[in-house]
Description:
By secondary structure, the protein is of the alpha+beta class.
Amino acid sequence: MPVRKARVLGLGVYDEVRQAGLQSQDWQDIRTRINHARPEPLAFCLGCNEPAHVKAATSTERSPHFAHYKGGGLSCPWGEDGGRNPDDVRASIYAGNQESPLHKSMCNQVLELISLDPRYELGSGVVDGYLPPNGAGRGRWPDVRFNLDGLGKFAVEVQLAPSLATEVVARSKYYLSQGIHLIWLVPWYTFDRVARAFTADIAQ
Length: 204
Ligand SMILES: [Zn+2]
């Protein structure tokens, strides 16, 4: 199995024994740290010293584990693995998701409902409109955005497919920096079920 031992900056070495003792929440915390540090690598395979990340942190079918990024681990004595890099994962998750009829319909219904609120600022509602970047970053296409009188700017992200941690973090940071209140709309969510893969990254 690839990446038998990993070193995470600030947390130390994770050998197989230490990994076996980790709970799901521990794996999610490590993954969150790695994602927050991006693009700086935070975890490394001790076999080849290349950057590593956490896979299957929220899976109910596979055990969480450290893995090389795609194209990494070629010189690793423990062997490479079939890891995909974050951009490939992002592409595969978002292809088909953002454009699905259900997603589109949800966005329109959100705006329709919001426009009934007396605090809704006329003309402020946009579905899938572009927001320019602040500084050097990239812009965003919030699913729905609108302004409420006295409450400020809002963005709604309709998340119908499993979330990708790097994307969740990036969006959260962006909206925070813009002073926009971000609301995640997910199919189901209860506090005793936050470990579900669907919402774990958003809850985190
Ligand atoms: Zn390695």
